[in-house]
Amino acid sequence: MEKKNTYLGNDGLLHCTVCNEAVEVKFDVPVMGITGHGRMCKCQRELQKQIEERQRQQEEHIKRDRCFPSCIQHEWTFENDNGRNSKMQVAKKYVANWNEMKKNGLGLLLWGSVGSGKSYMAACVANELIKQGADVKMTNFATVLNDLFNCEDKNEYIRSLCRYSLLILDDLGIERNTEYSLENLFNVIDARYVSGKAMIITTNLNLEELKNQKQLSLKRIYDRVLERCIPVCVSENDFRKDNRVEAKVKFGKIINGGKMDEEKYE
Ligand SMILES: [Zn+2]
Questions:
Q1: pLDDT tens-digit profile of 64-95?
Q2: CA distance 29 to 17
Q3: Ligand 1 center–CA 55 separation, angstroms
Q4: Residue 11 lies in a domain
Q5: Considering the domain boundaries, does residue 191 fall inside one?
Q6: Least packed by Cβ within 10 Å: which of 124, 178, 225, 229?
Q7: 119 is a domain residue
Q8: CATH of the domain at 217
Q9: What are the residues facing 203 on neighbouring strands?
Q10: Structural domain tally of the chain?
């Protein structure tokens, strides 16, 4: 540290002319010929703090760039939220309990119709966790499948997705359901599942479609997701729709003596 702008104080130590703090420490007895050492005064400590804060902000910016597909999502934060979606509270609680969520590999399944704000909610979680120092990746299923199709080492790509403490996958269910893509999709979800790492998944699919999937290659993906991601209905309308579906299923079971009812009552 610089020792410019100092004066010799009454205590025999050099002091900073700005903050008047001593800028050196002297030993009572010299140690191996050394009589003392410098110390940071208040100005230097504040300068140091500013440098560290700037570094932290730079690192945070790099993390945000790496996390999101575009800069738009940098602005999708709890602070910028209009407060209209009551389910935002769930996202806030998830962040507040992040250490426990992370330890248990627990995530969220944000489901609801198009435009209900699922991606916004997921990005809010990402931004807040990045602020806290976490490594987060937000991408979507179409991009992951495209990347997997084009990359040379698929295992390495999947491993790279597992390095993030939180992986957010947008738009489950809009990918083309070829056996090849479903196999790849399963591998990504399964790798996160096996490594016990948290995921947040958004989907336009109805919860019932996820729970009662008949196609096996889809079912094993959805089962993995449902095992670790807590379903949160993001749009109030869909929640009612889901209740209606559940009521219908119950109704069908009752009149069919416990068996699932395939018939429609509309
Ligand atoms: Zn000073």
A1: 999 999 999 999 999 999 888 889 999 999 99
A2: 27
A3: 22
A4: no
A5: yes
A6: 178
A7: yes
A8: 3.40.50.300
A9: 111, 172
A10: 1
